Amino acid sequence: MKPRTLRRHINESVKSLGRNGWMTFASVGAVAVSLILVGMFLMVMFNLNKIAGDIESDVEVRVYVSQSATQAQTRQLGSDLKQIRNVQSVTYESKKQGLNNLMKSLGNDKSTFSDLKNENPLPNAYILKTDNPQQTTYVANKAQSLAYVSDVRYGKGTVEKLFHVINIARNVGIVLIVGLLFTSIFLIANTIKLTIVARRREIEIMKLVGATNSFVRWPYFIEGLIMGVLGSVIPVLMVFIVYHFVYYNLGASFSGMFISLIPYQTMTTNLSLLLVGIGAAIGVWGSLNSVRKFLKI
Amino acid sequence: MEDMIVMDNVWKAYPNGVMALNGIDLSVGEGEFIYIVGPSGAGKSTFIKMIFRELKPTRGKIIVDHKNIATLRDRQVPYFRRKIGVVFQDFRLLPKLTVYENVAFALEVIEESPRVIKRRVMEVLDLVGLKHKVNSFPGQLSGGEQQRVSIARSICNRPPVLIADEPTGNLDPDTSWQIMDVFKRINEQGTTVVMATHNREIVNTIKHRVVALEDGMIVRDEEEGAYGYEA
Ligand SMILES: Nc1ncnc2c1ncn2[C@@H]1O[C@H](COP(=O)(O)OP(=O)(O)OP(=O)(O)O)[C@@H](O)[C@H]1O
Ligand SMILES: [Mg+2]
């Protein structure tokens, strides 16, 4: 296409968007509302998935040694644990180290815990890593059956619960979002239909003097594209602002743990591109849908 | 004389079953001027619509400028239409565009260059005698002037064929003569003109070939013919 022709098409689109100001506003608004919800939903889903992955890849089995065990018995337990199949490593964590780690992960406020130093309630523990996450249940059961084991803890249940929550959220979200996106497409299609009806005479003459279908179609295509992309502006801004808040506040409270949120840059870049893309797709789909019927003159 | 339009056993049935054309055989030479006459419902408009491929024949061949347009692909139709100028009874101008813009529009949408558009629009407006009205809007013009704008638009791309469906149907007699004068000039430049009309006086005064249709059939075809029906 010649640049002159493209300029003409863009001019035509902008003119007609202005002429149908209120309808344009409503359609862009509908796209914006849908995309805000899509954006927030995806922001949560992406992070839940990330955290679930973090947890899953870092499952360790903590085996607590009973308080009554002697040093020799504790050492014996250590070597017994090493014998369990699929155990990759066994690390000993004394009650003192355990307390230090706990204090570190909860923040710097040592005074709160200073009392505990004298009367440490934590047991000595062994930390087992398995070859892969699926084996934690087996390893945990085996460890439980050994002597001088007071308790066995592992993240399996947490991961399963998390995946369960993710699944429900995903299904509810998808239904909601598909509904919203179709509403937006419908509104855009309708707006463009109005502009086409207003210019039916013009289209008729264009076809009469030999304009091609694609020439007739272009302005409407651009119109839809503009509406879709305009509709994604506010949602993209929202992503930047909301995720800034989430990442630098909520994200900080995860520090020191093995889980973390998706980095700010990665999230905002990817989600923005995705939202603009969805907006553009909605706009183009809506517009092409409504032009098709009118071109059969 | 070379043939510009050839119809070979052309039939047209509308989707509702009405048979509008029943076996038309006709050839129109390059540069010829013909009138299509006949009573209301005879099939004149249908005949005109076939020539610029607004309608496809149910059966038969229509050759325009050496191309069979009955089998033309849809994608090719726009390019074919650039070779046919069309004029209607109701002018079909865009009310929000000036005279100049209305004519230029036809060239813009087939992506003609601005330089060519400027020159050509003034040329055809001069030909139809409306050079002084370039900045008027259709609503500020008389019926005859509007029809002249629409004729200017139809010929701005130099089509070899001009077809007109009752171009004087909405005009008073005086104005109609002006329109015929414009057609005469266009025809003299070598353009083939096909004009469907009910205007007996014009047909009987400005003598050209007359093809009479009745019930979708050619019942008469005379050089320098007469209108032949009571008004
Ligand atoms: N779109 C259509 N669908 C069905 N039948 C049609 C259609 N257009 C025209 N006809 C029928 O086809 C026949 C020929 O119509 P056409 O318009 O060609 O006549 P005409 O000679 O132009 O008449 P007039 O002088 O009144 O303009 C008529 O019987 C008409 O009712
Ligand atoms: Mg008619």
Overall structural class of chain B, as computed from helix and strand content, comes to alpha/beta
> How are strands sequenced across the largest beta sheet of chain B?
6-7-8-3-9-10
Q: Average pLDDT across residues of chain B?
A: 94
DSSP helical segment count of chain A: 10
Q: In total, how many beta strands of chain A? A: 4
What does this structure look like?
The complex is a heterodimer of chains A (297) and B (231). Chain A has 297 residues and is α+β, with helices and mostly antiparallel strands. Chain A has 2 domains: 189 residues, no CATH class; 94 residues, Alpha-Beta Plaits, CATH 3.30.70. Chain A has 10 helices and 4 strands; from the N terminus they run H-H-E-H-E-H-H-E-H-E-H-H-H-H. In chain A, strands 2-3-1-4 form a 4-stranded antiparallel β-sheet. Chain A is elongated and about 100 Å long. Chain B has a domain of 65 residues. In chain B, strand 7, helix 6 and strand 8 form a beta-alpha-beta unit. The longest helix of chain B has 16 residues. Chains A and B meet through helix 1 and helix 8 of A and helix 2 and helix 3 of B. The structure holds adenosine-5'-triphosphate and magnesium ion. Adenosine-5'-triphosphate binds next to helix 1 of chain B.
